[in-house]
Amino acid sequence: MDLHTVDPPSEVSDLRTTQAPTLCVDLDGTLLNGNLLWECFLSLLKTQPAALLLVPFWLLTGRATLKQELARRARIDVTALPYRDDVLRFLEAERLSGRRVVLVTAADRELAQRVADYTGVFDQVFGSSGGHNLQGAVKAEFLRERFGEGHFEYVGNSRADLKIWRVARAAYVVSDRGLWKRAAGVTEVRRLFEVKSPPIRTWVRALRGHHWSKNLLLFLPLALAHRFSVHDVGLTVLGFLLFGMCASGLYILNDLLDLHSDRGHPWKRKRPFAAGEISIGEGLLISFVLLAGSLGEAFLLTPGFGIALAGYAVLTMWYSLHLKRVVLLDAFVLSSFYCIRIFAGALITWVPLSHWFLTFSLFLFLSLAMAKRYSELVHAEGLIERGQSGRGYLGRDKEVLMALGIASSFSAVVVFSLYVHSPEVLALYRSPEPLLLLAPILLYWLSRVWLQAHRGELHDDPITLALRDPASRAVAAACLLVIALSMLHIGF
Hints:
Elements: E1 22-25, H1 36-47, H2 55-60, H3 63-73, H4 85-96, E2 101-108, H5 109-119, E3 124-128, H6 137-147, E4 152-156, H7 162-165, E5 170-175, H8 177-184, E6 188-194, H9 200-206, H10 220-225, H11 230-257, H12 259-262, H13 280-301, H14 303-321, H15 329-349, H16 355-379, H17 381-386, H18 398-420, H19 423-426, H20 438-455, H21 462-466, H22 470-487
Parallel strand pairs: 1-2, 1-4, 2-3, 4-5, 5-6
Helix pairs in contact: 1-3, 11-13, 11-14, 11-15, 13-14, 14-15, 15-16, 16-18, 16-20, 18-20, 20-22
């Protein structure tokens, strides 16, 4: 069996006679909070998506060939992978005590060697190569022949490792208590590194639950037209839920595609997928279910809304794969996502939208998109200079983005002032003059957003951040008061 070892053949001794049993360690899900095969797949999906068409042909010659081809093409930074600190500390202590520690993994051997070189805790490395997939029963037989039955201990994390633990002297389990009990039925269990299922709040973070607030824009056409019938509101509520499901599925896909760049980011590295709190496989499955379910139901709600939601999904995926790296165009596309929500809300109940309001929305959200990009340049200058930010900007582009963003802010306020005197508004308000008070209020809020961005205090999307900002909530209350005064026909 052509398996890799870092020791030269002359240095390999008969380890069966060693007093301290060799400690054999799995990689995926054990030393790593993740799976290198999925890591390679995502890297290729983002950098060379056309190469994935070759996956079925690689798979015809075996899983080991598939892993080798993916690893050869993928760009994996082993220094940024989500290692399990408790397992790594345990291995370091065992090796310092003089024990022989060996990495035995089903991952590609060359990629496993890079992990071993980085961690520095392994004396020897074995991995899949030459058409041999070192997993399950194959790995158990290899370890039995290599070290002798009962002459090694094994650190693993899955049910497939039960076959290995049957021929091992003892087990170290990196999983939940269910697998620990099963392992105890076949060998002695020395230690449990307990891994718990991600709590609900972790899934809410992965689904970007706080970003569902953006979908309130679907109700804006009804509010602007003063249409509050139970039927229209009910349909829009359904649209809100479907848009939220679709957006969450796309957020997961975007986070998976940005996995490697997020791990080097000051705060994005704490996202559930980047931190290894949720597996890549689970993320892909949930993303597919949310997207398929929401898009299918959207066409049943109204065909127009279905087309709008499908267009949003296609544009978002295009943005995730390519457009986010196109300078300036990425900000325009990002701002369009908000406008699509307003347009989709109008299509649910066929509410006509003012061209003035759509123009105002474009300038407003373009300013916020520029602020988001500016903030990323402030907080990730190191990644940008190394070309690892996943964006096309340079550090010195901050001033240009600020100028464009502030200009968009003032443009939005000017267009809004003209919108207040449009025929659409005059038809709904007997005295629309109080609505002009919204212009300085809006200008204050936008100026404050840019001041926060300039100070490095903007760590999230400006709209979602506003939900937690007391000053922004006060601004929202003031806007509602002004609108109420206009609806009560109170003029200057």
